[in-house]
Structure formats: structure tokens, C-alpha cells
Amino acid sequence: MNVTNCTDPVAEFQYHLFPTVFIISFIIGLPGNLAALFYFTVRVSPRTPFSVFISNLAVADILILCTLPFRIHYHLNQNNWVFGNLACFLTGTLYFANIYMSIGFMTCICVDRYVATVHPHSYLRIRQPFCSLAVSVGLWSVSGVAILVFVLMGPLKNGDASSGQSCFENFTKTEWRDRLNLYSIFFLVLGSLVPSVVILVCYPLAARRISRFKTKTAQKAIKVISAILAITVLCFLPYHVIYLLHLLQRMDIIQNCSARNAIYNARRVTMALVTLNTCLDPVLYYMTTNHFSWKALKTTWLWGMAYQKVSRRMQSSCARPRAKTGMRTCRIQKTTGVLKGNPSLCTSLNHGWWWRMWTRRSGCLGGIYQSTRHCRRTAGG
Fold it and tell me: In this protein, which residues make up the domain named G-protein coupled receptors family 1 profile (predicted)?
């Protein structure tokens, strides 16, 4: 059947699917990504390539999540946009651009884990934060330039929409021919094909190498790569495959009416799936840390309030052999920075962020203490 005889496809289920998925993603994803951003930028020290990429991935997810309230209203309103052309352009651009930024940083994480496990000697030379920062700045710069060029080309023109004003969909054939085809091909190749190939190649190579080791570090690395592979296959791969078919349809290569309707409906589903990655990424963040770290994150503010009181007690007893902590007694060896006493308490003190702050500032340990790695710590009776 000729494409000119096809009626415009309508998917009534999208008015319920999109709001439901977007609300779930917003409620779960926003606090999860904000917590991850805080943890990997403030609490993780020293910075590593892994923490840099994770932080940037959280930023990309947060930008997507910030656009969801507008899109929730849009779909609840039967795909009728009421916030104006500028808001439509900004939210649509941020939403779709950061989908590709998300898979870009997930690819960087996968490559980082692959090099760290398969080529550990080479990884020692490139594990400085400068390299990961340069890669991150490069990715954001490419995205920024693409958006800038997109903006300079003028506003997008939508086709006739019988139900109201559409936003970032139903573009005219002229827009597709003059503008969107080139952008779609560019992002499909660099934002979909290349990352997918890298992830699908790195995973089996790293898994085969890591399977030889039984250490906790190796097992954590395989969990990270497995999570990235699962998110890619579940969220990103279906989206990009259907988008390729959608592009072929818009270029009139696919003209069958039934196929066009099926592609339209499938695109609704895959757009919902790709948004779900924003609430699945916190699972990836959790898998990269231990349970204690996330449990401690919940009580960061409580410990922050208690820090002044505890540190004053420890500093005031610096010259004495014992320091009362309010729970048990921890002996502080002045010359070596050693905590002795109750093992569980001393261990938590040694690894606490406020303990590191205190030892850096403390006059009694300042002459000896260089960093947590150079301070000998023991716990005993």
C-alpha cells in the first residue's frame, strides 16, 4: 500500500504508559542519582576514573529526570503541549541528548573496568583523574556543540496535530529531509552503534579474564559490567533498533502501512524503556560500593552534627593515653596515629570521614599523619 494512503498511527496506551513510567522513574531515580552524585563527588577520595564517570552518568540522568514533569503533563494532556515552544525545545533537547550521554558514560565505565582487569599495567598509567576528566569534558563538549548547531538551525516545525500542539514529534517531511535525517544518522552511529559494540565486546573479554580470579575486587568488576550489559540490552538496545526502523520509515524506505503502525507503537514502548535506565542506574551505583558505604551515606548528616562534639573530646584528650568516645574507650597512640580498644568502634573511627578530617587537622597527629594509607591503624585489646 502506498504511504500516502496510510492513516496517521494512534497509540492510545501511551497516555497511560508514559505518565506511569515517568512518575516511577522520577520518584526512584532522582533521589538515587542525587545520592550517588553526592557520594562519588564528595565522599570518595582520592578521585578515580571510575568515580568520575559514575558522577557524570548521574548528572546525565538527573538532567533527563528534570524534564520528566513537563513530559508527564504533556502525555496526561493527550500529547498537547501548553508550556510554549522554548520550553518544548529545551526539555526535548535535554531529554534526547542525555539519553546518548548516559550510554556514552556507561561505555566509559565498561572500558575502564575492562582495562583495569585485562590490562592492569596499562591501567596504572592512565588511572589519573585527569584522563577521565578529559574524556568527560570531551563527551559533554561534543554534545554541547551538536545542540548548539541544532539551535542555530532554527525552530523545528511540527506537522498538523488534530489533538493539539505536539512537542518533539510529528515533524514535517521537510524537517526530516533537511535536518533530522543527518542528526539521526550521526547519533545512531556514535551514540548507539559504537557504544553497543564496545560494551558487547568488552563484556565477554573482561568476564573471561576475571573468571580466573576469586577476589572481591574481581567479583565486583564482573557485577558492574554485567549490570551495564543488562541495562544496555533492556533499555538502550531496543530503543536504538526501533529508532533505526523509525528513521527508515521517515525516509520512506519502509512504506507498508502495517509496518509503520507497528513501528510507531514499538517506539512508544522503547521510549518508556530507555527512560527506566535513570532508576536502574542507582542499582549500578550500589553494586560498585559495599553495603556499609550506602548505610553510612544515610547517616552522613547525623554524623556531621556529632562531629564537632566527638572531635573536641578526642582533641582534648590527645595528651592523655585514653580518650572517652561516649561508647567505649579507644586508646590513641600519639606518635603513630593508632587507635586501640574496642575493635568495632576503632574500625569505624579509622574509616570514618570525620576521623580523617580530624587527623588531618589535629596537632597531635599532624606531624606524623600523611593520609589514611600511610597511617598504621590497629584494633585490639
Answer: 32-285
- Is the whole-model pTM more than 0.85? no
Asked whether residue 355 carries a pLDDT value surpassing 50, the answer given is: no
What pLDDT sits at residue 33? 94
Contact 266, 246 (CB under 8 A): no
Residue 49: pLDDT over 80: yes
Lookup: cell for 81: 503541549
Q: Is 184 exposed, middle or buried (0-12, 13-18, 19+ CB in 10 A)?
A: middle
Closest CA to 5 of 175, 177, 260: 260
Give the model's pLDDT for residue 372: 39
Whole-number Å distance between alpha carbons of 346 and 322? 13
Of residues 106 and 183, the one with the higher pLDDT is 106
Tell me what the pLDDT averaged over the chain comes to: 75
CATH of domain 6-289: 1.20.1070.10
pLDDT at 273: 94
Domain locations along the chain = 6-289, 299-366
| pLDDT at residue 212 greater than cutoff 90 | no
Place of cell 526501533: 242
**Residue 100 to residues 103, 111, 180, 229, 274: CA-CA distances in angstroms?**
5, 17, 16, 16, 10
- For 256-271, write each residue's pLDDT tens digit: 888 989 999 999 999 9
Can you give the three-state secondary structure of the chain, one letter per residue? CCHHHCCCCCCCCHHHHHHHHHHHHHHHHHHHHHHHHHHHHHHCCCCCHHHHHHHHHHHHHHHHHHHHHHHHHHHHCCCCCCCCHHHHHHHHHHHHHHHHHHHHHHHHHHHHHHHHHHCHHHHHHHCCHHHHHHHHHHHHHHHHHHHHHHHHCCCCCECCCCCCCCCCCCECHHHHHHHHHHHHHHHHHHHHHHHHHHHHHHHHHHHHHHCCCCCHHHHHHHHHHHHHHHHHHHHHHHHHHHHHHHHHHHCCCCCCHHHHHHHHHHHHHHHHHHHHHHHHHHHHHHHHCCHHHHHHHHCHHHHHHHHHHHHHHHHHCCCCCEEECCCCEEEEECCCCEEEECHHHHHHHHHCHHHHHHHHHCHHHHCCCCCCCCCCCCCCC
Closest CA to 95 of 72, 124, 112: 72
